[in-house]
Design goal:
heterodimer; A: Rossmann fold; ten-stranded mixed β-sheet; 22 helices; 22 strands; elongated; B: alpha/beta; 2 domains; two-stranded parallel ribbon
């Protein structure tokens, strides 16, 4: 059957009338129409495009008992009836568009045709943004029905702003639909986002397993996938410019990620922050019970007067104090306590801050350095995302899967805040940044206490589009996410859904058949809502052309945690492959590990031409062990016991 | 309610000076039949109380069903005489692979009135066949209407015969006709046509024989007999009980089968009965005549009604 052949006729009865937004039509028993199919009603002077939302089949049987009678109560005999009962296939369709659009009238009786490519474009109003030369269409998949595969485009202005923005994806876990959809959509954006609209980059947070760890590696595609890529006009290739960031493990030398295979080390860099970076976002880590007004005031004092500055207080030290690391901060606190114990003359207040408050802040901040060990460094120097020089079409994956949840919040809050700051100043390097956050119900739950991250996500979803800061979020249960966050997503994608989730009020507008289809949606298919589409649309998208996490872990098994010296050598080899482990082992033998880490971080930050020489220089001059050879302390002269009688 | 398609004609008729009217008789889709007993001649030496025909067997090969419909209404009065409009239709549905397909359809639209009235309507009856009522008696609204109704019956019978002939010219398949084969010489002599009468207004026996005839058990048939009466052509016939009648009505599930008046029919009576028993399913509910109405026949009726101009 050809794509636009006649497949049915509109029927309208008093019980099932046509309205301006809905109509019903019947088809032959064998027809390509299914739930989600787009159809066209042709009548003189009016064309109506609709999408099938429900289907009914019934026969002329008034009651089941008549069928039982006809079969003498034998189900097998029923199948042998010489004539099959007349049966109707009746479909309900929601109107996508009427031409002309005014006056808006009930759908007239008329012939129903299966939509063709041009009809799909018209029905979904894609004609407004897919004209050659000024297209802002971003391919998102194909609409497939009756042998037709029509490319579906999202409007970049409504995907990345400024008209609307944000994408939210809902689907059950385990099918990889959410991750695949995001990877494919990002690739599509990078390939087709119009140059006149500016530059774009993406920052993805890998919150579990190896999901996003191999986006720079090619994945296996089927012929069907390749055909879909061709139909969508996209290249089936992995992301070209990807950079991975992962904090260290608590040992401070092995990266806390599954992407530790040596051949992937070239674009996998440590994410390391100093005290300043942490202190600016202390609010993320300290809940309201921790940070009362007094504690907050003391933290502000530390941030504004002490950390990263030369702080001079003769009660603590004759010389100005330089607090740049957690170690420095600990020393700072120790001096305060010593002063208070020895010289405060019973006073409990230092610089208007009560000792209890100071101790509380010290405990909480100290706790952070323990929980975030591996993320925070003692040398005060950060290894961070390329703020201010983010390349166009670059993808930055921050692997926080192995971090304490509170530290994940810190990483997330700081990176998003930094993105926002730079975008406000227009000095990030790109005009638009997509931030992908999985498990949104964890970060922005609909119930539970109000957290810094939740407030930040809300702000991002409500105001981000004006800045070019776009949230791509995903979760299993949309109903458990803060309504305003998902509600602000201009585009919503739905993979296979849990029936319990579909039963929640948020899905009340979907027909029972659409819900049933959602509950059984195969991998690689999505339902999409987009501002230009007046009804949800089912579509199919190809597998992303990147290596799946599970495959990647098998192909590039994570390196086991190495002993300190070998781990250092491996990281330096990522900068200079000629460096040998033996050479490094000899170089750092006998050195303090903190000194080695500091030298290593400096080397990685600087990326010098002569890696080994630079690293060696950073280590500094070796202080040789000395053995005391002097006479020592002379013993007491032997005298007689004066009490001896 | 008046049909939309006759609205224009009604206006035109009214414009000719006739008194407009809208009256649709309650049973405008059925055929009138007078209740009577016409003794038949038995052709088999079998008890009238019947004998079992055996288990139902599916009808082999292609099977077709023929039926017709009619509807009529009074649209005006010329003095005391009614002007009746009617639509008659006949069709054949053919069963192949358990599916029914339309094989033949024909429709006619009639205007029935006294000749003087028809002459005044000349020129506005486009698409209608004018049928003249006899003028040998003074105009009487009820009598004239009864005459008109008879004309509709006759015209429908003719149309069914025409459609049956057309089908037969194209196919040699078995054809089941709703009603009597005796209305047509061609039908009555067709060895692969079967008539099914649901109506028992005319009965072939009386007294004790009739009682036995009407008490056939389910799956039993009467002996083959030759009905007497005013039919155009002689046929052979027998009664067959499709469904148990006990606790319901004497006529429940009782059909009268007609076939060509040949020795072959006598030989085939049991076989045809077994095939017809298989046609009980699917049942023709919600039609109140479901116990006697074969599904294929009902499908023809439904098709003709649904596809007719309303």
């Amino acid at each position: 059957m050809s794509a636009s052949s006649l497949i049915g006729r509109v029927v309208a009865t008093e019980l099932k009338p046509s309205t301006p937004h809905q109509f019903h039509f019947w088809t032959a028993r064998e027809s390509p129409v299914g739930i989600g199919a787009i159809v066209r009603v042709d009548t003189p002077g009016r064309q109506v495009l609709g999408i099938v939302t429900d289907g009914f089949a019934y026969s002329d049987l008034l009651t089941p008992i008549h069928d039982v009678i006809g079969a003498d109560g034998d189900p097998a005999a029923a199948a042998h009836a010489p004539t099959e009962r007349s049966e109707i296939r009746l479909y309900s369709a929601a109107v996508l568009r009427q031409i002309p659009e005014e006056p808006l009238q009930p759908v007239p009786l008329g012939e129903v045709h299966l939509a063709g490519d041009a009809d799909v474009i018209t029905a979904l109003r894609m004609d407004a943004f897919t004209q050659p030369g000024r297209s802002t269409g971003i391919p998102v998949g194909v609409y497939a029905a009756g042998g037709l595969e029509s490319p579906i485009y999202l409007d970049a202005d409504f995907l990345l702003g400024p008209e609307a923005a944000h994408v939210n994806i809902t689907g059950v876990s385990g099918l990889a639909t959410k991750t695949s959809a995001v990877a494919f959509l990002l690739s599509s954006i990078f390939q087709t986002f119009p140059a006149q609209k500016g530059s774009v980059a993406a920052v993805c947070f890998n919150v579990k397993g190896p999901d996003l760890c191999f986006l720079d590696q090619p994945g296996e595609l089927s012929d069907q996938d390749r055909r879909l890529y061709q139909r969508l006009g996209l290249a089936a290739e992995p992301f070209r410019e990807v950079r991975y960031y992962a904090p260290y493990k608590p040992d401070g030398i092995n990266l806390n990620t599954l992407r530790t295979h040596e051949s992937l080390a070239g674009n996998t860099v440590p994410l390391v922050w100093g005290l300043r970076e942490v202190l600016d976002y202390a609010e993320v880590l300290l809940n309201k019970d921790d940070v009362d007004a007094k504690a907050g005031a003391f933290i502000d004092f530390l941030a504004e007067r002490v950390v990263g500055r030369s702080f001079h207080d003769v009660t603590l030290s004759d010389q100005p104090l330089e607090v740049r690391s957690f170690a420095d901060l600990e020393d700072f606190f120790r001096r305060i306590f010593e002063f208070m114990e020895v010289q405060s003359k019973g006073s409990e207040v230092w610089r208007n801050h009560h000792m209890a408050t100071i101790r509380k802040v010290r405990n909480r901040l100290g706790n952070i350095s323990v929980r975030a060990k591996g993320l925070v460094t003692d040398d005060g120097q950060a290894s961070d995302l390329p703020w201010g020089r983010m390349p166009d079409r670059s993808l930055h994956v921050v692997d926080v899967a192995g971090l304490d949840p509170l530290v994940q919040d810190l990483v997330f809050a700081r990176i998003v805040s930094k993105l926002r700051e730079h975008l406000e100043r227009r000095d990030l390097g790109v005009d638009h940044v997509v931030v992908f956050v999985d498990e949104l119900n964890k970060y922005a739950p609909s119930d539970g206490q109000d957290t810094y991250v939740r407030r930040m996500l809300l702000d991002l979803s409500e105001r981000g589009r004006y800045l070019g800061l776009v949230l791509f979020s995903a979760q299993q249960f949309r109903s458990q996410v803060l309504r305003r966050v998902v509600g602000n997503a201009g585009t919503a994608l739905f993979g296979r859904m849990d029936m319990d989730e579909i039963a929640t009020p948020g899905y009340a507008t979907l027909s029972p058949a659409t819900k049933a289809k959602l509950a059984a949606l195969p991998k690689g298919e999505l339902m999409v809502r987009h501002p230009h589409f007046t009804q949800p649309l089912f579509l199919r998208f190809p597998r992303p052309a990147v290596m799946a996490g599970r495959v990647g872990v098998e192909r590039f098994p994570p390196s086991p945690d190495l002993p300190f010296a070998q781990a250092v050598a491996r990281q330096l080899r990522a900068l200079d492959s000629a460096i040998t482990a033996a050479r490094i082992e000899a170089l750092i033998d006998g050195r303090r590990e903190d000194d080695v880490r500091r030298a290593l971080h400096a080397t990685r930050r600087t990326h010098p031409d002569n890696v080994l020489a630079f690293f060696s220089a950073q280590l500094g001059k070796r202080v040789e062990r000395e053995v005391a050879t002097g006479k020592g302390v002379t013993g007491l002269k032997k005298v007689g016991d004066p009490y001896e009688r | 309610m008046s049909t939309r398609s006759w609205t224009r004609l009604r206006r035109a008729v009214a414009a000719c000076g006739f008194t407009p009217a809208t009256w649709i008789p309650a049973a405008s889709e059925g055929r009138a039949e007078e209740a009577t007993i016409r003794p038949a001649r038995l052709l088999e030496d079998l008890p009238i109380s019947g004998h079992a025909v055996g288990a139902a067997e599916p009808w082999p090969g292609t099977l077709a069903f023929l039926d017709g419909t009619q509807r009529y209404e009074v649209m005006a009065y010329a003095g005391a005489s009614p002007v009746v409009v009617a639509e008659i239709a006949a069709g054949v549905l053919e069963r192949r692979d358990r599916q029914l397909h339309v094989a033949e359809v024909a429709r006619r639209r009639l205007v029935i009135a006294r000749p003087a009235v028809l002459s005044r309507l000349d020129g506005i009856l486009e698409g209608h066949i004018a049928v003249a009522l006899p003028e040998d008696e003074p105009a009487h609204p009820v009598h004239d209407f009864q005459l008109a109704r008879r004309e509709v019956d006759t015209e429908r019978g003719r149309l069914e015969v025409e459609v049956g002939r057309r089908y037969r010219s194209a196919s040699g398949a078995w054809l089941i006709v709703d009603g009597s084969l005796g209305e047509s010489l061609q039908w009555a002599s067709d060895p692969r046509m079967v008539g099914i009468s649901k109506s028992h207004a005319t009965l072939p026996f009386s007294d004790r024989d009739l009682e036995q005839y009407l008490r056939l058990p389910a799956g039993y048939r009467s002996p083959v007999f030759q009905p007497a009466g005013h039919q155009v052509a002689p046929v052979y016939s027998w009664a067959l009980r499709l469904w148990p009648w006990e606790g319901k009505d004497l006529l429940h599930g009782l059909i009268r089968v007609e076939a060509a008046p040949t020795a072959e029919t006598l030989a085939l009576a049991d076989q045809l009965s077994r095939w017809l028993l298989a046609e009980r399913a699917p049942v023709s509910t919600p039609d109140p005549r479901w116990d006697r109405l074969l599904y294929g026949i009902r499908a023809v009726e439904e098709y003709l009604r649904a596809s007719g101009e309303r």
